[in-house]
């Protein structure tokens, strides 16, 4: 039997049900903030990511799934959604002189070392806001993410870290000072950091290697290079977060792994998932649209890793919805068509109800065992009498109570089971 590729997770029905609940909750919050969904292609020209995400990032250097198209073009399975989102809105004339608030979801691909919470195909939900340069929209994005955790009931498991990278000018002078400082200790740096000293020095701040971390404790701090624009923006954001009651910590070492950020960057972190603690990350990227060939347009956004959010959500041990709410048992083949029709009537009157109709015949006892196995609370039993009367016999599986009712009345009895279900 052919096996799955390493790092590509299979989602089985039980997890699929939880997934749907979580995704539905996230989607409701995005809709409540009036963000609109866009669908982005999975494949883009490789150049989009090398120019957008940055040549010297881990993603572009070593994690992309790239392939040559039949005509020789280099294509890449999207490792993230922001660059693609900019491409789509730009190409369709939706950026210049406009504001946009959009979201997207779907699988992303990165050739990383797989472990719990880190996969080679993973699922993101991301939101991007364009055309708004002030900290108010940064605050809105953070309020929306805070609303996610509240709606999922995981707010006590996560904390927010924020930082500012300043303007590109202040970052350039900081970069110079950091390189000058770290060059003095070059031989003591770990191998990755030595390489980054040339390619992407700010990423060294992210290093987890102990000796490098020690050296960093004496390094110049980005905050000291901040210009007026950077400080005003950051102070503005902090003030709004305080007014909104969103707790945060400033982490001066937070730089993020993608090159397009300026000013605000943030991550939502949990300590409950081991090494893969970042469940959501984002920030402002005012230079990205121009870098990809558009006219200057400010932007900010975030993406969350759905598998990681799901791992946290699972820890709440909430009861999950069963595979079916109602199992329709059919006494003999003569009633099968009536059973299908009756089930459709129920589905139309209570659309949230999950109704599974037995197929394949067999004894009533075996059919009721199947009803139990799929977790249904109700069996709808259909025999010749029910078919003749336009009725069904509803049996509550827990108590054994049953009654024969016209279909619409039965629908009324079932309605409460479907309330609040996703
Ligand atoms: P990112 O930090 O690379 O940012 O990814 C966002 C989130 O995706 C992470 O916080 C994590 O939860 C999840 N994630 C990343 N890699 C993996 C993986 N290998 N396995 C499982 N989950 C993973 C971005 O992608 C930016 N596009 C976010 C953004 C949007 N910034 C502005 N707008």
Structure in words:
- The longest helix has 20 residues, at 13-32.
- An eight-stranded mixed β-sheet has the order 1-5-6-11-10-9-7-8.
- The mean pLDDT is 95.
- With 422 residues, it is an alpha+beta fold.
- Helix content is 39%, strand content 21%.
- The chain binds histidyl-adenosine monophosphate.
The hetero compounds bound to this protein are: histidyl-adenosine monophosphate
The number of helical segments is 15
In what range is the share of β-strand residues?
15-25%
Shape estimate = elongated
> How far apart, in Å, are the first and last alpha carbons?
35 Å
Low-confidence stretches: none
Radius of gyration: 27 Å
Order of strands in the sheet with most strands: 1-5-6-11-10-9-7-8
Mean pLDDT across the residues is 95
**Largest sheet descriptor:** 8 strands, mixed
Output the keywords.
8-stranded mixed β-sheet; 16 strands; alpha+beta; 422 residues; 5-stranded mixed β-sheet; binds histidyl-adenosine monophosphate; elongated; 15 helices
Structure described in brief:
The protein is α+β, with helices and mostly antiparallel strands and 422 residues long.
Helix/strand layout:
Blueprint: H1 13-32, E1 36-37, E2 43-45, H2 46-52, H3 58-63, E3 65-68, E4 74-77, H4 82-91, E5 100-109, E6 121-130, H5 135-152, E7 159-164, H6 168-183, H7 191-199, H8 210-216, H9 228-244, E8 249-250, E9 262-269, E10 278-284, H10 288-291, E11 299-305, H11 306-314, E12 326-330, H12 336-349, E13 355-357, H13 364-373, E14 378-382, H14 384-389, E15 391-396, E16 402-406, H15 407-418
Helix pairs in contact: 1-5, 1-11, 5-9, 12-15
This protein binds histidyl-adenosine monophosphate.
Histidyl-adenosine monophosphate is lined by residues 80-82, 110, 112, 117-119, 122, 124, 126, 128, 257-258, 278-283, 301-305, 307-308.
